[in-house]
Every structure is written in structure tokens, then in C-alpha cells.
Design brief:
The chain has 696 residues and is an alpha+beta fold. It is built from 15 helices and 29 strands. Helix 1 packs parallel to helix 2, helix 6 packs across helix 8 and helix 9 packs across helix 10.
Length: 696
Amino acid sequence: MVKQFTMELAGRPLTVEIGRVAAQANGAAFMHYGDTVVLSTATASDKPREGIDFFPLSVEFEEKMYSVGKIPGGFNKREGKASEHAVLTSRVIDRPMRPLFPKDYRNDVTLNNLVMSVDPDCSPEVAAMLGSSIATCISDIPFDGPIAATQIGLIDGEFIVNPTSDQNLVSDLALTVASTAEKVIMIEAGANEVPEDTMIEAIFKAHEVNKEIIAFIQKIVDECGKEKHDYEHVDTPEELWNDMVEFITPEAMEEAVFTDVKQVREENIRQIEEKLEERYAEEHEDWLPLIGDAVYKFQKKTVRKMILKDHKRPDGRAIDEIRPLSAEIDILPRVHGSGMFKRGQTQIMTVTTLAPLSEVQKVDGIDLNITSKRYMHHYNFPSYSVGETKPSRGPGRREIGHGALAERALVPVLPSEDEFPYAIRTVSETLESNGSTSQASVCASTLSLMAAGVPIKKPVAGISTGLVTGDTDDDYLILTDIQGLEDFFGDMDFKVAGTHDGITAIQMDIKIHGLTPDIIKGAITKAKAAREYILTEIMEPVISEPRPEVGKYAPKIKQMHVDPDKISEIIGKQGKTINAIIDETGVKIDINDDGRVDICGVDQEMIEKAMDIIRLIVEPVEVGAIYEGEVVRIMNFGAFVQLAPNKDGLIHISKLSRDRVNKVEDVVNIGDKVRVKVLEIDKMGRINLALREKLS
């Protein structure tokens, strides 16, 4: 039996159909938001996966090109691996959903969102986020939902709920907030230096909308929801726990984790596990596979108690103290720009590469307004950065997510194409990792861009704050600059990037069932103070503003504008003219339909020469002006000189010299470079010249 539920969301109808499609999934919601259609399904395996100590959740956002009336590009004409946008959307759905599944649930769960039709006025990402929540809530899969998600834009100082594709292009804010009925559980934002107060206001506006959606979802669950199935609970046996705590002692565990050197801590924990294995090897052999999980829980309990009750962090820092920082530039001699930022045991080197605008990344996606990316930020996380041995298999979802976050943080301060006609790529290499590598890559990228001579408007820095909570909403502690252990055992990773004047990016992940307004405000306030310190005390003393010019090894690009009607003259028949210019000067020329011409090369003199040739092509020859050209034809009465492609002028034999010339070849020959003056342009358009100087 098909059931249909409808509400109005941001002035557009949201309709959910249950029972119409995908009946064999544990839960399915056929989502209609305007003309956007997304099929969201939730499925779970019958039995838990053996040999794992985590919840195996997979979230997919499948972009189908038919949804926007396109055939996929490439040879296969079929959707391949997920696009970067699809990966990022999957992560945005995953992050608020994951904390609401039971912590000891080990059954495989897949949340699939199939985008089947796209209305540019109605976000398929919003439909997918809501659909995943509904499909899971009505299924028999254990889940402590519902949740809802809302996007907020900011145009001319006004908040826009679930902005359209066109509105997103001009919005100063791209904010996504997911909530339970009581608390905010996920924040993702990109912004054009939005002040902290405005950002907080936007977050809670989204939360209010989410509460209305959750009330709507709850009606669907009440009418269509299945009873949740039982599962095999995983826990440390009480006898093992008590014996371990008595044998190791809380004091010894605290001593083991209390160090600012990650490798020392890991060695201390390894020795504890070895002692337990020796203790249980004979009498409690069945406990041996459980030791790792038990020690993990003991560590977690110890670290959280140290922080929350004793106000003592594992590395000895104060609660709001940042780890030792350092910044450098120009580490790599031949690249276009390089910067390195170090925060404790986290070290990032970012390299900037500049190229002509023809090198922008083409985007083949379901948002028809986004067809290219001029700025690309790529993030790499090799195994050696954490002291492990693992072959590289290319970027995973985490790497793509971290790269996108840093990219989002820096886009608002980049110069326009007219100001700086380059495609820009930054690559952040993680050299050492112990927490907050994404925000260190924001800092390193700023250093690298300024060192490369990219005229960014303002420097950007990033910091991550953490959280440890107690038994009540009022029992918590916010930590500035969390290291890996505090992220691992804590409740929150709240990343904020921005300039002195405002926020440019936020990403918040939590492991609990939501944050109170006071926690969110406190985290944003602490992040601002830390960001100001990093910018003022660490980064700006190294490089305070972008270099005035691009580096020695970077391509030099000059930009000019011509009448679009003249473009065909620059190109010439079958590209003959433009190719001749390229052959003569060694430059690269890109011409846009609007008449913008980008000339790229390593030799500034050759760039100027190419520009002069193009000017000669598109601009009328002026009487009295001096030009340089090449003798291309000789007649008895004079020599023809090519001033520019398809623009020849005649030097009459009488104008070759002040003295009498008997033969043209006595003065010039074919191929000679000459400087000439334009004497006249007759009624027939013929250009008459006088020789001023023979150049070669």
C-alpha cells in the first residue's frame, strides 16, 4: 500500500512516498522536492560482520546524468566512479547519521540515494539527507533518529532557506545544518568572511527549520515505521574489566597516556597490552581477542576523566593553549610557491602551481551552473605521516573531504580572473599527522599562495576545537587545538577557518547526540581567538602580504581584451594566423568568446611581442605611427612589408632611402626585419610606408 505525505519546505512542496518503490529494502523513501526526485534506501545485513570493532556504515549519493538531461562525457558514456561532489555529499549525510546508530552495532548498513530528477530550484542534496533519515527511521534498523538537514544562504544580508542553484551563485554563505529534535548534530559551511554572530544566527535559524521537518518525519515514522530488530551486543566482560583496572591501575594508565609524543604513548599502550596478554595467556585464553578493545575503553575513560575532571590534557597543555607552531616558505626551489606549517606533531607542506585559464578543471555534474573549477585544492595523507606502512591507493573519501574543506576556506580570498588570469592548484602533503591536518593545510596553503605571488585579499588560518562532555548538558569542556588522541576519545571536532574579519569555512563532526547553543557559541568564540593568534603571531611575521609578482619558474600571463568580432582575424583560416604567432613567440594563447585574450609564456619579451602582433591585427593602422615588420615580397617599384598577419604595406623604391636607389635589393631583401613609418592609407585601403631603419 502506497502512502503519501506532504509539507511545504521553503515555499516548495516536499512529498514523501512510502511503499511505492524498493519494497525489498529495509526502508525506502521516494522523495519529491519540487521536480527533484531522489530514491533513498536503507539496508542492513542479517548478521554482524565478524572480526571488526567498528560500525560498518556506507553512504552513497549516486548522480545520474539523465536527471539533468545529459549523457555522461567520456568514451563509455556511462556513469563511472563517484564525482568529488557526490563523495562530499555522501560525507555530509554520513556525519550526522553515524552517531545515532548504536555504538556496538556491527551489521553492515548501506544508505543509498539515487538522484533521478533534478530541479535547480530544489536541492537534491537536501532531498537525499532527509530521505536517508526517513528511510532509516521507518526501517527495522536500530537508529535513534529522526534527524533533518537544512541549507542556509545569505544574500544582501538576508537569510535564504534552501537556496536555489542560481541563488547559491551569489550567496555569501553556503551552510548546511543537521539536527535532532533537540540539538544541532552537524555543521558544514563555506562563507565570504561571515562574522561569527551572523554565522551563529544562521545555524540556529536552520535548526528551527529542522525541528519543523522532524515533526513531519515523525508522523511518517508513527504511521509507517517498523519495529527495530535485535542485534548482538558487543561489550567488555565485567570480570575482564575489573581485573584489568585492578592489575594496570588508573594511575598507571594515566601515566601511559600523559605525553606529548604520540610514538611514546603508543609504545606505552603496547606494553600494557603485552602485560595483559601474559597475564591471561593460560587461565583466560578466551579474553585474549578482547584485550585491544578493553584497553581502548580504559584509555578513553582515563583521557576523558583527566580532561573533564582534572582539567589536565594528555600533553600537559592548558585547556585553551595551542601546540607549538612554526611557519616557513620557499622550501622547494623550482616550484611556483611553497609553504610549510607545523602545529605540534602535525606538519603540512603545500605547493602552489599556476597555469593558464585553459587548464581549469572541467566539471561534468548535475549542477548545470557549475561547469569548471579555477581553484583546485588537493590533500594527500600518506601512511608514513602516522608511522605506518601501507601502499598508496589514491585519495579516499577522507582525503577528498579534507581537500574540499581547505579549498572552501580559501576560495573567498582569491583574486578574480580579471585580476589574476591563472588557474591555481594547491597540493597539501601531510608529512606528519597528530590531529587537525585539514586546518594546518589551510594555513600552509595561505603561505604557499602568498609566496607564489597570488594576490589573495587576506590571509586565512584554521583551527580545530574539541569537546568532552559529562552526564549533563552543563557538564562539558571545550578544548582549543585538539590533537589526535583528544579527537579520538573526545566528542567533537569543530573546524573553523577564516580571516581576521570573518569565517570562510566550518566543518563540525560529533560523536554524541547533538550540541547545545552554548557549546556551539563557545567553540566558535575560542576558534576566533586562536585564529587571530595564528595569523598575527605565526603566519604574518613569515610573509605578511602576497609577493608583487609570480616566481621565476611560474608562467607569466598577460591579459588583453579585443572586439569579439575580431577573434576570427586573430585565429585566421584553419588557425594559420594564431599558430604563426605561437611559432614566432613561443607563447600559449587562449581566447574567450567575450574577447578576452590570455597570453602565457616564460619570456616576458615574447609575451609583449605576441600582444603587439595581436594589437596590430585588431587595431587599425594609424598614419604617422612607427611599426616593425618583415619584408615579404619585392617588386621593381618597391618592397611589401607585413606589419601584421593580413596587413601588408608598400615601401615605394623612392621611400627606401633619401638617396637615389637603383634597385630595391640594394637596400632590403625578403625576410629582412624593418622599422617603417605609415605615410598614408589611400582610398583603396592600401598602406604606404617609408623605411626608417633596417633591423636585420
